[in-house]
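Sample A.
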Amino acid sequence: MYWWSIFVVVRFCQETIPCQPGFSSDNFVFTVHRERLQRGKILGRVDFDICTDQNRFLFICDDNRFKVEIDGTIKVKHDIKLHHGRINFSIHGWHSVGKKITSRVTVEYQRPHHTGHELNDQTESQNIQMFPHPSSGLKRYNRQWVGHVFDIPENQRAPFPKELGPMESLKSKNSTLHYSITGPGADLPPVGLFIINRDSGLLLVTEPLDREKQSKYLLTVHAAFINGTSAEDPMIVIVFVVDENDNNPEFISNTFIGNVNEGSQPGTSVMTVTATDKDDPTTDNGMFKFSVLSQTPPVPHPQMFTIDQDTGTIRVISAGLDRENVSEYTLIIKVADMKGTGLSNTATASITVLDQNDNAPQFNPTNVKNAVDFEVVRLIVTDNDERHTPTWNAKYRIVKGNDGGNFGITAEPDSNDGIVKTIKGLDFEAKQQYILLITVENEVPFSTPSSTSTATLTVTVEDVNEAPVFSPPTLSVPVKEDVPLNTFIATYQAKDPDIEMKYYIGNDPAGWLNVDKESGIITVKQAMNRESPFVKNDKYTSLIYAYDNATGTGTLVLLLEDVNDNGPVVDVVGDVHFCNQKPPPQEFSVVDPDFVGNAGPFRAELLHEARRNWAVSMNDTENKIILSMATQLPPAEYQIIVRAYDNGNNYQDTTLKVVVCDCTGDKIHCPKAGNPAIVWLAVLGSLCAVFALLNKYIEDSDPMAPPYDSLLVFHHEGDSLNQWGTRFKKLADTYGGEDE
């Protein structure tokens, strides 16, 4: 079987003119009137000349969605959609000496003009742009030397060599020719992969090809007369190795390590895994998808995590990550080619849940019955061998009666006594008595036949009043923060095999909850608020007690879901300072205690008189308001009320104290004068003292003079301190003398 395509070379006669080998343009532009291009559509033709009588050429396109015929016609190989209105790619041709020449091709979408007729493929094809070569004139064509392109599948089976096709020159009909081949794969490494029959020109491949080693071979075929002179120009032969899905995609690591904070919200990124595939990435053989096969442990939900099938990013998909319950998750992840249906591989993703301070410290009551590492008894043995040697050191084993692994026994180094301790807590309600069979040997075997010493130990479990045990120890319940009073939250009960119990609220820091003493039903007592300081990471934690002469404790965690119940505020600390001449705008952050979905984007407006002299707008990118001075203002203090709205139209007003100073631009300079109120108080105090003395003098000298109180009317609104002084001097001159 032959894998080849013939590219007919045309020789032509024309006038001798200066010729520049290559494409007639550095960039060919083809205009189409549809965004979707169907397979087989002709875009147009490019013109190419190498300054010989050859007019059929071998072209390669670097975009596998297109192909270039030997006459320069460009066709669509696969259905395409022009997402951004254009596609750019390169095409390559070869000079007769094997030099590669490149040009760019641009395919542009242009909306058609409406003429009352529907545009179809036939009418559109009438507008194909053709690019003629600058040389023109009548040409006479004769078929001559032939060029080839071969598509050979990789991994072919024996027998070898396999025939690709004849490279015969038409001149061989009249003369004896000898053929040879050069290039990588022929006379260059890998040498001998391709050979050619010296007499017939038959091209052969000698062994299986591997696309992952080399995907393309560029060979040159030579035809010569028997005297050694060239019969034809060298001919380019290109062999493309067709990909086979013979490689599994592989993760770059067998284990990926990541971590995530407990309480993380759905959508939180954990890590990104990466894989590779040696097959052709432009085909389904090399296109792979990711998926999660399993999660261990499958709690509190079997799908706590998901993976982006294209990027490999692992994210949290469910709420409820709690390090105190599960500190580590193991995911088995899969990568498969053929877009997820072909060859595959797996890896492990280990995710550590990082601790957050979401649990209050508690005292843990203990008792003998449930104690672990409680010493039950000491077994005493005697051994006449030398003390503290392997022949004396005892080795104890419990050989019977310890099926649950509740007990362990060790040798006390100094005395050699066997110390029996509890490894697990004992439960009187489950089992009241254990009979243990214990053997003792030395660390080394006996030198003479001896029987193994045994002991039978009977352990009787004493009953004690156990504290009730909540199931589960920590109960997490999702609930909206604005649920009405008396809303049912959960039924949280404890188990106690001894007697019945009563339920109480143990620790409810915000006083939001109520528990029914008999049933353990928990309801809402006061309005809840996710933004409360008692809520950490959207979790409100309380303790529930069950009492039956002993107290059991359960932890109730409310996973509060946010509602839009807060308006945004402008975050400003202290006074705001502006110059009154050419001041730049100033930005201030907008803060909303609600969660992201119930906060921004924000908008803002000014209230009352501030609208005349000030303007406000939003910087949506950074959730900031922009305050600017609309008109030049005299230096003074101004109260500006800004009303900020969230995306649910909840609003809150913020009053800004703006100090306008006599300065320019952003070089704010406000004189640090003394406090005006203190200055005026000092002045008034001095004046009052003077007035008192003056009034006394006037009364003594002129009983008909106006009283002291009436003298205060000399002040008029708007008077400066200098005007006060002038009036006061006149008053003193009127009632006093030169010395007074």
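Sample B.
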Amino acid sequence: MTLSSDGLRLSMEGKLWRICLTTAILLCGIGCQNNSSERRCNVLIVNDDTYSGVIRNGNDCPSPNNFSDWKGNCTPQQEIQRLCIISAGENTTTSEKCHPEFPNCTFEVRKDNNSYFITLSKDAVNTQELHLWFPLRKNMTCIPSQFYQNTTDYLTTPVKPETICGMKSTYDAAACRNKTPDTFILEITAEGPISCLTCNNPVKKPDMNISLPSGQMESSNGVISADLASEAMKNLSSLIELMGNASTAAISMGKVKGLLSKLHKDDPKDINFGFSPNKDMSIVEDKNALNKYFNRSVRVSKEAYDMALNKSGTFVGVLVFPSMSQDEKKSIVLNGEVVGIEIGAHIANLTDTIDIEYRNVDKVGFNVFCNSWNGKGKLPNWTTDGCQTLESNNSITCQCTHLSFFAILMSPPPKNISASDVASLTYISYIGCGLSMFFLGTALFMQFVISKTKSSQATKILVNLFLAMLFLNLTFLTNETIAAMGSYVACVIIGAVMHYSMLSTFTWFLIEAVHLFLQLKKRTANIKHYMLKVYVVGWVLPALVVIVLLGLQKYTLMSIQTDDGKSVKMCWITDIYIHYGVNIGYYALVFVWTLTNFIIVVRQILILRKTNVGKCKNDPASKNTLTILGLLFLLGLTWGFAFFSYGPMVIPSYYIFSILNSFQGFFLFLYYYNTNKIVGDDRNSVFTNQSTSTFSNIYDDSPVHKK
């Protein structure tokens, strides 16, 4: 005997619904869950391989006026009438209208491998009317105690598509085949979280193509003229009229590819341009798709979008110029590509930067730096100003505060130092810095805690030098640890503080030499507010330099490569020109002045020694040697081994500097102790006079006179 369709449905309802679902609802208490004024399309999806389709269409709850026990919820019997029940068999699909009261309560259910795939329209999600009920997903069977429950209050909890589907939904081309863009697909598996796919492809192809002749921009050897490329960027605004009603257009000028997009005043937002390997460009609305399908991208921030609109900008254009003419330095450009970005208005000083990202980059054997060019001149004049370089594994991101031409310049790193040398130098440096900090700290303790008398000008200058060197050693010891933390802000701070400490140390070396010179000439007493001026020069001037470099974003993470492929990271200045100009250039000036004064003082010591020999007053040679060594460290001449080492002498110079630097704090402590001795039970400070040492004849240690 063959059952009719209605008979089959009644049979299914009697077999499945009476035995399983009614008991489940009564025991689990699905309930309306909401105030009756909030009309919902509640759908229960059950598992039965013998039938696929709507078992029962739901009816809305009666009016509250008809409730004999009205307390804001439907009774279980009324809920049964309200509930729409759908059976989904294995490897079957049903797409029937479920609830007559709700026009948007239409969806498609498919079950594959014990997982449900529910296709919903965008309207069904946005109206927030649809609630889906399932058995507990672990078994997907209709057992009352195994309904999908809220573990807090053990009430049955529905799946609400509006809480899962939306802007964060990912696109899957295979799942969305033959589906409209305004479709979502809920995936509910036996185990794992509920996910939602969108069929709205985030990769937007251009609405139209505009092909233009390259003209004279491309030379016969394939090199693109930089000045003509700049003109091409300026002329992008003339292409807006050719676009008509189209919002986006692909631009092609010979080898130059790009994309032009109109700006819309009612929808300012970030715009992501993705470059495919064949240099075709698309606008991408999803970050995951951008990383998955494109190896290069440009993000124009909402801030730049708003700024352009406020300045009457109407478009944003991105062009990629392969093989652009090189600058005078013949710099190597990553992939030979220069990216030009134009937005129809002058954009600068952005806080939310323009990001140019290259993924899957092979940069082994090179240092990379993000650079920009303002488009002026016949050849590019690359600068790192306004661009921050971020490296992560095999990707490079340029974060720039302005719009212009951008490129990633690559330069071979210095010859890699051996891993054994790095380990040895690190060991020596850490021990040396620790010893120096100990003796410097001891001298400062003696000065501020034990000494009770007024300090001389020379002692005050020496104490400030101790402070600068103490901070320099401390920041050096902690720099590598902070660099390993991976925090950009912390790295910038420690790099700036260490640089400030180093510049302050150099400045106090210079002040020591200047004070020594003035003492030789007996002129310090004639300078008004002498120490105040010394403090300003010693602490304020280095701070101004560091503040400027902070504004230029010159402090970042750098790596020192070793011959075993590993690297040592620290926070410092990666711009080689800043390093040579500010650090080496400044120390070179300090070195010339301090070396000159050192020669003068040593000559004076030798002259005084001869004079004392003639008067039968011969100082021990050891005392003169100690004085000269003290001067070497006092004037910072040993730092020349680190800054002026080149060629085959680089590594030996590093060892010499590291060893000498280990003794710097010790010798400076001895000098301080000998020139500021503490004697007697009352611990009064007695300064040495001309009879105690030869050097005291030159370096007047008399107490400061009040002005």
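B remarks: The first strand starts at residue 41 and ends at 47. The CA atoms of residues 137 and 192 lie 9 Å apart.
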